[in-house]
């Protein structure tokens, strides 16, 4: 596990700590949003790691990394993501679909009309290329296939930002921000805005409360890991016992059939037939069983 000093803004803990910080939170979140969207953002309420629970224990909930509520404006969700496994990348569009659904469901109260449903922009910042086109920016909106120019204003938008993308002529400031988010050092903060952001990041890393929270998160992960290992060992032992018991029962049946067959004067061919019938095995397997136990039992 990285030390707090080694964390970058693409790491969940650091981006959560920065954007929720009592001094730097709103300011840093606003700069990141304004750089991505290239427009001014109003007063923000930051909710780090916002939870939307499932309807019951059998339905899926979500935890959003950085949930931003703009006063009299839009809702934003920023998700730094480094899960570059093949399965995770393939399922990413459906994951985003679910995020939109849960955010919408949590923001339409009983009695409200659908027209009052607020615009939601989900922003994924990835260190992998989600669609393989080497673009830094992929903007996704619902639309009409037959009439692509038709304005379909459902208020839902998703932006995927690939930190290393080069195609599509992305703005220089955005390129600098995304590179800094992946490699959050002063050397990667060329502009005044990024230098200012880096000073905030440095101050957050040196904040005693943040350090304590990181230590606790480290300890919690260690407990979870150790608990998982212990449960895995226990499950392995139980599985071993179960497998051993099943194997023992199978062997007992094999020996018993051979003993009974011999006791009643059955020929090897007849014992083979009994083994196949009672154990539901092939003739070849029955021959192996008879060869295995026949000599041992002095048949």
Q: How many DSSP helices?
A: 9
Question: First CA to last CA: what distance?
Answer: 63 Å
- Radius of gyration based on Cα positions: 31 Å
Find the count of extended strands (DSSP E, 2+ residues).
6
Percent helix, as a range, is 40-55%
Strand order of the largest sheet: 1-2-3-4-6-5
Order of helices and strands: HHEEEHHEEEHHHHH
Biggest sheet, in brief?
6 strands, mixed
Q: Work out the strand percent.
A: 5-15%
Shape: elongated
Protein name: Rpn family recombination-promoting nuclease/putative transposase
Organism: Roseburia amylophila
List the helices and strands and how they pair.
Elements (H helix, E strand, L loop, with lengths): L11 H8 L5 H13 L6 E9 L9 E9 L4 E7 L4 H5 L1 H14 L14 E7 L10 E5 L14 E7 L9 H11 L9 H15 L1 H56 L4 H12 L3 H12 L5
Parallel strand pairs: 3-4, 4-6
Antiparallel strand pairs: 1-2, 2-3, 5-6
Helix pairs in contact: 7-8, 8-9
What does this structure look like?
The protein has helices at residues 12-19, 25-37, 86-90, 92-105, 172-182, 192-206, 208-263, 268-279, 283-294, and strands spanning 44-52, 62-70, 75-81, 120-126, 137-141, 156-162. With 299 residues, it is of the alpha/beta class. The protein has a 6-stranded mixed beta sheet with strand order 1-2-3-4-6-5, sandwiched between helices. The protein is elongated and about 95 Å long. The N and C termini lie far apart (63 Å).
For the structure shown, list the relevant keywords.
15% strand; elongated; 6 strands; 299 residues; 6-stranded mixed sheet; 9 helices; alpha/beta; RpnA; Rpn family recombination-promoting nuclease/putative transposase
């Amino acid at each position: 596990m990285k030390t707090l000093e080694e964390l970058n803004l693409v790491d969940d803990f650091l981006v959560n700590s920065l954007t929720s910080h009592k001094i730097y939170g709103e300011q840093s979140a606003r700069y990141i949003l304004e750089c991505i969207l290239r427009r001014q953002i109003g007063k923000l309420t930051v909710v780090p790691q916002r939870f939307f629970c499932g309807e019951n224990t059998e339905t899926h909930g979500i935890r959003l990394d950085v949930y931003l509520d703009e006063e009299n404006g839009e809702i934003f969700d920023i998700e730094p993501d480094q899960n570059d496994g093949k399965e995770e990348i393939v399922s990413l569009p459906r994951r985003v679909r679910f995020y939109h659904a849960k955010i919408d469901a949590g923001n339409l109260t009983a009695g409200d009309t659908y027209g009052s449903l607020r615009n939601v922009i989900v922003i994924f910042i990835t260190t992998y290329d989600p669609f393989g086109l080497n673009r830094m920016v992929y903007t996704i909106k619902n639309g009409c296939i037959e009439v692509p120019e038709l304005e379909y204003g459902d208020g839902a938008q998703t932006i995927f930002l690939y930190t290393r993308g080069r195609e599509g002529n992305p703005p220089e400031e955005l390129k600098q921000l995304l590179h800094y988010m992946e490699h959050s050092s002063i050397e990667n903060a060329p502009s005044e805005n990024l230098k200012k952001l880096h000073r905030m990041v440095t101050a957050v890393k040196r904040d005693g409360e943040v350090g304590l929270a990181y230590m606790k998160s480290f300890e919690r992960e260690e407990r979870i890991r150790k608990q998982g290992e212990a449960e895995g060992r226990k499950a392995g032992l139980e599985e071993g016992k179960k497998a051993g018991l099943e194997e023992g029962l199978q062997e007992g049946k094999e020996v018993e059939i051979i003993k009974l067959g011999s006791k009643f004067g059955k020929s090897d061919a007849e014992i083979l037939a009994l083994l196949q019938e009672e154990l539901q095995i092939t003739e070849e397997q029955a021959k192996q069983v008879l060869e295995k136990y026949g000599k041992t039992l002095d048949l």
